[in-house]
Specification:
mainly alpha
Length: 160
């Protein structure tokens, strides 16, 4: 199932890191990308919990980034940006909600792991100071609010 979500995870994480860029050099970019990918992975697994859900998404497509680009003032109109068609708006909204709210992130990971906290989500759940500095824009509740609010209610229902 995870392999089938890979294009959505990769595109949505890339969209997040472009919409809310890292603060600093190459290391900051890598740290921000890791945090975005972890949040998007959790969000995608919650959004598409069964092989049937993943299959239906594969047939219908994830929707693309057009609305997200409009909301954030993004520049997703070039032919070289074909990857944007794999961005999932709901997954992006859920991911920024998780990044901006540590308690919600912990609840979401618990929902996936039935009480465990795998090491693979450390940067999402327990970011250190370097992680926080690198992803300051991506984790800022006020800055991500226009995207987070789009589908936050559905996320809260899923992790309730």
């Amino acid at each position: 199932m995870y392999a089938d979500l890979s294009p959505v995870i990769a595109a949505t994480a890339q969209w997040l890191t472009r919409a809310y860029p890292a603060s600093g050099g190459a290391l900051a970019l890598a740290l921000t990308e890791a945090q975005a990918r972890q949040a998007v992975t959790v969000a995608a697994r919650l959004r598409y919990p069964t092989p049937m859900d993943v299959g239906l998404m594969g047939v219908a497509g994830p929707g693309g980034s057009a609305r997200l680009d409009w909301i954030t003032g993004g520049d997703g109109d070039g032919a070289a940006d074909a990857w944007r068609t794999w961005v999932d708006e709901v997954v992006a909204s859920w991911a920024v909600s998780l990044l901006a709210d540590p308690e919600l992130a912990a609840r979401a990971v618990r929902a996936l792991t039935e009480g465990g906290t795998p090491v693979e989500y450390r940067r999402l759940l327990t970011p250190d100071d370097g992680d926080r500095r690198a992803a300051a824009l991506l984790r800022h509740p006020d800055l991500v609010a226009p995207v987070a609010v789009l589908h936050r209610a559905e996320l809260l229902a899923v992790v309730a």
